[in-house]
Request: fold
Amino acid sequence: MAAEKRVVFRSGWLPWALVGPQAAVILVFFFWPAAQTLLQSIQRQDAFGTSTEWVGFANFAQIFSDPSYLASFKTTALFSVLVAVVGIAVSLLLAVFADRVIRAALVYKTLLIWPYAVAPAVAGVLWLFMFAPSVGVVSYALHRAGVDWNHLLNAGDAMTLIVMAAVWNQVSYNFLFFLAGLQSIPKSLIEAAAIDGARPWRRFWTIIFPLLSPTTFFLLVINIIYAFFGTFGIIDAATEGGPGKETAVLVYKLYFDGFKALDLGGSAAQSVVLMAIVIGLTVIQFRFIESKVNY
Amino acid sequence: MKLKSLVSCSLIAFAAFSAPAHAQVEIQWWHAMGGALGEWVNDLAKGFNDSQKEYKVTPTFKGSYPETLTAGIAAFRAGNQPDIIQVFEVGTATMMASKGAIVPVGKVMKDSGLKFDPAAYVPAVAGYYTAPNGQMLSMPFNSSTTIFYYNKDAFKAAGLDPNKPPATWAEVALAAAKLKAAGQKCPFTTSWISWTQLESFSAWHNVEFATKGNGMNGADAKLTFNTPLHVRHIQDLENMAKQGLFVYKGRDNKADVTFPSGECAMITASAGLLGAIKKNAKFDFGVAPLPYYQDIAGAPQNTVIGGASLWVMAGKPADHYKGVASFFNYLSSPEVQSASHKRTGYLPITTAAFKLTEQSGFYKENPGADVAVNQMIRKTTDKSRGIRLGNFLQIRTIIDEELEQVWGGKKGAKEALDEAVKRGNEQLERFQAANKS
Reply:
């Protein structure tokens, strides 16, 4: 290692100048809004901001005394796990198949990337149309098959609908990473296993899947964060959190309270809670799950 | 440096020269009217701009009602607010409480020196936007109310008299049963469930939705929509839902499309839906007053207002307010009002405009167009004058959430209404705490 050449900046200001733009972007677009949120979470303002009152932790006390907020934690956990697990499983399956396609592989791959270009709210509306009770294509077919689909009143149906829409929207992203991961696995390893008599199923679980684990881990983190933050457009378009509050995940409630109901203090307090959860989850994932990942 | 200052000097001179002799004052108007209604708004602004030379009103579409309000609030916080902003009825209490952000319309009109008579406005409409001290706070613009539509062809097919719409809720249930027997999958549905089935329902039966005159007389109101009458009505709807006579079609106005498409044969919805039905329905339809319970004394009273009004924002130069006043004066003239009423189905906001429309024979040619007007142009009581509550958007959503539990069979009517009142009252307390000033 001693032979390694290290580049040293002699100038005192140049490194700072080079880091500067990046640091400025992070400061302005990440730390500044986060600081504002922290500030607002301990204030109570009227909608136009003409009167501001410092209320300490009253906003937090209020949201945690709301049983529907507490119930929303359970909903969020269920939703996030479903979105992450189903999303990763489906895209892994698609990627493995795409990797084996010989003819027209490019067309196949390109088509699979399309859903990512669809905005979440539009994805929500698309799925809503297909599943609209009594007029949607799919719900009509389901009705004929004897399934009475009604996500307006049935909590399970509503959850299924938003999970499908959220997964569909995210599948392309996962797919790209899995495909890249699959292509970087040396063919010689797989061939060697094949010569040793391992069948495709066995080869997948003992060679491919472990070698993909860094990708899978990365996607797990990204998908959980996506389920937590990126899905309110889908929920707003498809279920508005209903029936009751059965699909009102934390970020949807936050969006509703802040942008529709104009309760900035309560919404900011929820943001802080959400921020803490995501930071916590990320730390846990990196400390405990990462140690089981082979790089 | 010298060259630069020379250039800027000549630029200023050029700008001074090219400015018109008498500069027009531009009035910014943010609104939430898309599609055909957006064209109506643009025509109103054009009509005003063509009628005089001093002011120019520029309407800008800002998205849905909540989006427009959010945009206005963000603009105000940044010091870039428009002169006029259209705010839906649910946001009225929010606007009223933001004293530093708005200028009461009564004051704008008085300061302008133009003739302004608050008594010229329809009481049930203007009263809603008037402060307890009698000052008009915002200009009524597109006002509607809740009415009942029914499919005459479906009525005929089910052996019902197409010229005799159900007047009471008992008759609605009977008609729904016959429609269902005749193969109608969705006999009855409703849009805006809180507005039609609880708010208008309360005023229609002359019972309070909330104390303090439904919040009109003070911010410390408490919700009261869990009385035996309310529970009875929601129970009746629940029974209808169980038998497939009432079909829930979602929140807000999601059910609106199910009537003109022919899927649902009866609907309670906004009077503003009339235009869309006229345009899209391929069948003969009828319009009727909201159903009621016969045994309740004082029913039917009047229904409550919906729609939006125009608010004047604070912090603008004085000549802007003069322009706003003369624009409002233009909007309130009987001719403009009557034309708007005929064009959109929204209510006329002055009594003179209603009379003018009547004289023109419009109601004779368009049966049903006067149902909404007749429900509103009545002497109102303290219990029926209107409903004005803080955090009303949240309260309506809470009602949606709780009632969905009833239609889904998870909660009983009483349990759901009690819970909605309890959760709604928490919202009222929170609003009061944030706006005590």
About this structure: The beta strands of chain B are 25-31, 55-61, 84-88, 102-103, 139-144, 146-151, 186-190, 264-270, 285-288, 306-313. The longest helix of chain B spans residues 413-434.
